[in-house]
Specification:
By secondary structure, this protein is mainly α. The protein has two domains: 91 residues; 75 residues, Arc Repressor Mutant, subunit A. The protein has six helices and three strands. It has a three-stranded antiparallel β-sheet. α1 packs across α3 and α5 packs across α6. The radius of gyration is 25 Å and the shape is flat. The chain starts with a helix and ends in a 17-residue tail after the last strand.
């Protein structure tokens, strides 16, 4: 009877281990799926911009403009809304690429013109191309900003630019810490 209980206990532990492993793998799969979607969007935008530039190089203007001029439509009225939208999306997604969190946040808050909560800052930074890998990115942002003299807390985990903040501090690689 004792041997039977040991077998049951061992099997129960094995089931729990497999369940935990399955959950871990599902989380990894979900993360990979999100990354695949993002890369597909970037690829689509890059291909669109590539085609536009190739068309410009071949004939000096995109094919849709050439066709429009043949039909007598002014070239200024042929700007493709899809291309305009693609350019805007691409610019928005790469707005803060290569900048540190404080640098990008400075630009973000200057553009927003108001205080933002660390969650909103995080969301906008990620959308703008900042890559963050920590397990607690919102906390990391809050700590980083509270150490930088360009920012002041206006509420819990909510930051705004200080009044003294000027353009000369914008891309300072080593901003003064408090």
């Amino acid at each position: 009877m004792e041997e039977f209980k040991e077998i049951i206990t061992g099997l129960k532990q094995r089931v729990q281990v497999y369940k935990a492993k399955l959950q871990e793998l599902q989380k990894k799969r979900d993360k990979a799926d999100d990354e695949i979607k993002t890369v597909k969007r970037y690829l689509e935008l890059a291909e669109t911009l590539y085609r536009v530039e190739v068309e410009k190089a071949k004939g000096g203007m995109p094919l849709n403009q050439l066709n429009a001029e043949k039909e007598g439509t002014p070239a200024s009225k042929t700007s493709s809304p899809l291309l305009d939208r693609s350019n805007l999306i691409l610019l928005e997604k790469t707005k803060y690429v290569g900048l540190s969190v404080p640098q990008a946040t400075f630009l973000l808050l200057k553009e927003a013109g108001k205080a933002l909560h660390a969650k909103e800052i995080y969301s906008r930074l990620i959308h703008g191309g900042v890559r963050m890998r920590g397990k607690t990115p919102i906390t990391s942002i809050a700590i980083s900003l509270s150490r930088d003299k360009r920012f002041v807390k206006s509420a819990p985990n909510t930051f705004k630019l200080t009044r003294e903040t000027g353009h000369d501090v914008l891309l300072d690689k080593n901003p003064p810490n408090t």
